[in-house]
Design goal:
With 296 residues, the protein is α+β, with helices and mostly antiparallel strands. The protein has a single domain, classed as Clavaminate synthase-like (Double-stranded beta-helix), CATH 3.60.130.10. 26% of the residues lie in helices and 25% in strands. It has seven helices and 19 strands. Helix 5 packs across helix 6, helix 5 packs across helix 7 and helix 6 packs across helix 7. The radius of gyration is 19 Å and the shape is globular. The two termini are 14 Å apart. The mean pLDDT is 91. The structure holds fe (ii) ion. The site of fe (ii) ion has 3 residues, from loops.
């Protein structure tokens, strides 16, 4: 991206920091048919902060069909149908470790804490997960808080510190996820390399470039480009995440509450379930940004 375009992007994103509380939850009366005002409120907040919190009114609290329609109305059309997804592309994230998945990718399906990451960092870079919806069907008996950091803030903080840090992290081979093989040596997934930060090309002259972040805090099964600039940038990135985490949005969703976001950085604390009613988070991943902007 040209430096003057980047400067304009940074200035425009900085302005939004004087917005109202990021904790506002938008009430949705009928998620299967959100009103114009509800839809606009969500899109406005996603445009500002890359996420919006919402709450479904009863009796839609755990209605998967309504969740599907709601996500569709907000532009999450092209879904990531992973093996564990239902017909809507909805995955039930609960403490049920799946057999066969690479170890690090099983952690979401346990009751353990999940460190900062964006979703699908192991996907092909030409087909990134641009948005996610996480909807609480049932909270844990205790714990299970989610934390969220807008990557735009992270990028700007790093750029303010030293522009060469973000430059290093935008290298197309900055972070690689090694290939995964089964016990017979067959390749289940090839090595995926890509940048940590990248900008999509706007779909029209009046839309702005959109920042994507591809990241995991994991240190195992991740390879970083072996250069001094990446080594320095990795440390600075981790420190900046830790700094922003101090005042990050932390929320323990109640049943019917959730977040829709442009695949922002998130984490989860460990939790304890009641045996008969496990914490269940319904997750939709989409290749479209919120609002359905067909960026490339
Ligand atoms: Fe995640």
């Amino acid at each position: 991206m040209h430096s003057s375009t980047l400067r304009r992007w940074i200035d425009s994103r900085r302005e939004r920091d004087i917005e109202d509380s990021i904790r506002t939850i938008i009430d949705i009366s009928n998620p299967a048919q959100p009103t114009d005002a509800e839809r606009k409120a969500i899109l406005h907040r996603c445009d500002r902060f890359n996420f919006a919190l919402y709450r479904f009114a009863p009796p839609y609290t755990a209605d998967r069909c309504a969740l599907d329609r709601f996500a569709h109305a907000l532009g999450l059309v092209r879904r990531d149908f992973s093996l564990d997804a239902d017909a809507f592309g909805i995955v039930s994230v609960r403490n049920t470790p799946a057999a066969g998945a690479p170890a690090g990718e099983m952690i979401p399906f346990t009751d353990r804490a999940l460190n900062w990451h964006s979703d699908g960092y192991y996907h092909p870079c030409e087909r990134p997960i641009r948005s996610i919806a996480m909807h609480c069907e049932r909270p844990a008996a205790s714990g299970g808080e989610n934390g969220f950091i807008d990557p735009d803030r992270l990028f700007i903080a790093l750029h303010d510190h030293d522009p060469s840090l973000v430059e290093a992290l935008m290298h197309p081979q900055a972070m690689s996820v090694p290939a995964v093989f089964d016990e017979k040596g067959r390749c289940l997934r090839p090595c995926r390399s890509g940048p940590v930060f990248s900008f999509s090309t706007p779909s029209s002259a009046d839309s702005r470039p959109r920042l994507s972040m591809r990241y995991t805090s994991r240190t195992r099964s991740i390879r970083w480009r072996d250069t001094p600039s990446i080594a320095e940038a990795r440390i600075a990135l981790r420190k900046t995440i830790d700094t922003l985490a101090r005042d990050a949005l932390m929320i323990r969703f109640e049943a019917g509450e959730g977040i829709i976001c442009n695949n922002i950085l998130h984490c989860r604390s460990a939790f304890i379930d009641e045996a008969a009613s496990p914490r269940t988070l319904l997750r939709i991943r989409s290749f479209d940004a919120v609002g359905g902007a067909p960026d490339s």
